[in-house]
Amino acid sequence: MEKLDQKPTITSIENGSVGSAKGFKTGGMHIGMRTKKPDLGWIYSEVPATAAGVYTTNVFQAAPLQVTQESIAEEKKLQAVLVNTVSANSCTGQQGLENARVTRQWLAQHLGITDHLVGVASTGVIGMQLPMEKIKKGIAAIDLSGSEAPFEEAILTTDTKTKHLAVTFEIDGKPVTIGGACKGSGMIHPNMATMLGFVTTDAAVAPDALKQALKTIVDKTFNRITVDGDTSTNDMVLLLANGQAENQPLSAQHPEWPVFLKGLEAVCQGLAKFIAGDGEGATKLIEVQVTGAKDNQSAEVIAKTIVGSSLVKTAVFGSDANWGRIVCAMGYSGEAFDPNHVTLKLGDLILFENGVPTPFDEQQAKNYLDEDSIVIKASLGEGNGSAVAWGCDLTYDYVKINASYRS
Amino acid sequence: MEKLDQKPTITSIENGSVGSAKGFKTGGMHIGMRTKKPDLGWIYSEVPATAAGVYTTNVFQAAPLQVTQESIAEEKKLQAVLVNTVSANSCTGQQGLENARVTRQWLAQHLGITDHLVGVASTGVIGMQLPMEKIKKGIAAIDLSGSEAPFEEAILTTDTKTKHLAVTFEIDGKPVTIGGACKGSGMIHPNMATMLGFVTTDAAVAPDALKQALKTIVDKTFNRITVDGDTSTNDMVLLLANGQAENQPLSAQHPEWPVFLKGLEAVCQGLAKFIAGDGEGATKLIEVQVTGAKDNQSAEVIAKTIVGSSLVKTAVFGSDANWGRIVCAMGYSGEAFDPNHVTLKLGDLILFENGVPTPFDEQQAKNYLDEDSIVIKASLGEGNGSAVAWGCDLTYDYVKINASYRS
């Protein structure tokens, strides 16, 4: 266990994941949607858990997202979640919606709980209906006492690594755990960058507070990453809190609410960075830190614009300290600022100071850019606004993965 | 000459360019900024021409754009324009601004005209000062009676083709010509997608009308293209009208004003499509036609979002009719619409109708996508708004060009 912070003490759990919190079980299996790899995952809580979700803003919101929202709307609780790969069940019309409801019902029946305690999530090709027979057999084989594959493995598509994390800290003197797992961009039939995140905690949290906490934290973690600028129809992050830690229910009134938020941010930020660093074809994680903006919102827009620039991403791939592209991206972000107060650093190397190019050691810059993780620091001298955003480089493999034919 | 339209009769001029209109001379030469290729271009009008410009919205507006605006501000006229490659003279501080003014002065002296009748434009690496000695020698060698290279060739960087066009039509019963040349994305030291466009006409046009016409037409031509979403610090389109056609000065009050606008649109749209189709690494021109949007502005946002999507661009490169990516991009455009009324076509092949996937012949779609020029048609059933946007596919060569080291 690594101590992440001094006060409050939030420690990470080795190999922690979405099943680390008390009272949660998770698993995965291979049901033949993919050739060999696990392709169906599930999460189960021993008791109904207070639930909150954030969903894609895409007008074409996929069927499972609609059905999960229907479930949570009933009593703000979920007890189980089913995740399938291969078909995104998006743009599939009335039949897709009906199929999502049927798979929800199958899992509810298998677990002996009511339908609306089940959430569903999908990732895969848009416009393809769910392979219902395979999913039916898969659900029938779910065994809460053990599973053939880890959940975090069963939800992957073209991800090259599993992405999971958990932290623990104390609330009311009782140990509380928050754990999560997610998938990033790409599919075995590459189609779109679908992001799914699942976070569980054994903390007791009031429903509205949970929803607010998730929205706040997602805005500065998952919503700060980009791989290719394409917002999926299936993006969803679910947060389940089952109260098994037996703390006093948390809300903004609880003195230790900031501790819970800090823990939740640690998990969501960690997962978000895993996704950015494992973007399709990526070889490097790019972190952009903007400070001195007129406000935080302005800083966020600028940070996201830099990390989303194709020219910045290709320059990082080529280890080229072509800083002009970075200031260029700042300049077209839509935010107003005085170019003469802009300073830019690559790690700790100053490239541009108060609007004027600075002589720098090209080799030193190149060596830094050859690392796996790159930090770009831009300061504006306009105010106290700051923000961080994460992304990855743009490589031949991104084009390869996404230019290949679906079949 | 090809007849472009019946009424008004606008005909294109074979091999027409920015020097086609009466009283304009243009040229280019090699002054040693690039290894071998022509790298300095000039435009000259026998008499001062009414001038209008549109300039990048990037906060870091390059020095030559500032100096050209200073020139035009004096009496809304230009008589000559100088264009250098290799250095963008952007983010070069006070020295860069001073250098731009000095090159302006050199050309004015060489031609025997006042400074403020000269406009300057640059394209190249950001943060690099102009090679003043080379430019000085180049200007001294400018000969209005002939030149060693065509203007449209001398302004190119990594462009693979020259981009030029001219049309002719009648105003007040007198022949009028509008011609243009431009450069697109990429440089010999690839750095950013700099777009420069130069349009000349022998029509007599009132200054304010000229400015308004340029803004209106650029909004639906040059501002509808994207190669990689990165807005340069150096983008500029200049329009010079020298009145040598001897028509009555044009403005909105002139009965044939719409004819002039149509001619100007034909030139600007043609040049814009040349740039999109010759984007860095591009193998195909993509045209997106959006109809049935709630208004034209909404249609424009949706069309630009589709043509800017990395996933749509890679799918077109791979000739993959992965239509889910197109509707996904529409969905995250930020525009509200009912997904159930959306219909999508690839050329004339229907892929998605009223929100539901349509079975289609994959091979037929693939054959269509193998062509050089692809048309994507999206209709929304919300209203009468329509717009067209142009872009190109995203290829290995885009990554290759932009990942390579500057030096």
From TrEMBL, chains A, B:
UniProt-annotated binding residues for substrate: T157, K183, T194, E280, N402, S407
Record key words, sorted: Acyltransferase, Amino-acid biosynthesis, Arginine biosynthesis, Autocatalytic cleavage, Cytoplasm, Multifunctional enzyme, Transferase
Source taxon at top rank: Bacteria
Pfam families: ArgJ (PF01960)
Gene3D superfamilies cross-referenced by the UniProt entry: arginine biosynthesis bifunctional protein suprefamily (3.30.2330.10), ArgJ beta chain, C-terminal domain (3.10.20.340), L-amino peptidase D-ALA esterase/amidase (3.60.70.12)
UniProt catalytic activity: L-glutamate + acetyl-CoA = N-acetyl-L-glutamate + CoA + H(+); N(2)-acetyl-L-ornithine + L-glutamate = N-acetyl-L-glutamate + L-ornithine
Keyword Cytoplasm annotated: yes
A GO term, aspect molecular function: L-glutamate N-acetyltransferase activity
Involved in the stabilization of negative charge on the oxyanion by the formation of the oxyanion hole, annotated site positions: T123, G124
Cytoplasm found in the keyword field: yes
Entry's family note: Belongs to the ArgJ family.
Descriptive protein name: Arginine biosynthesis bifunctional protein ArgJ
Biological source species: Sporolactobacillus inulinus CASD
Gene responsible for this protein: argJ
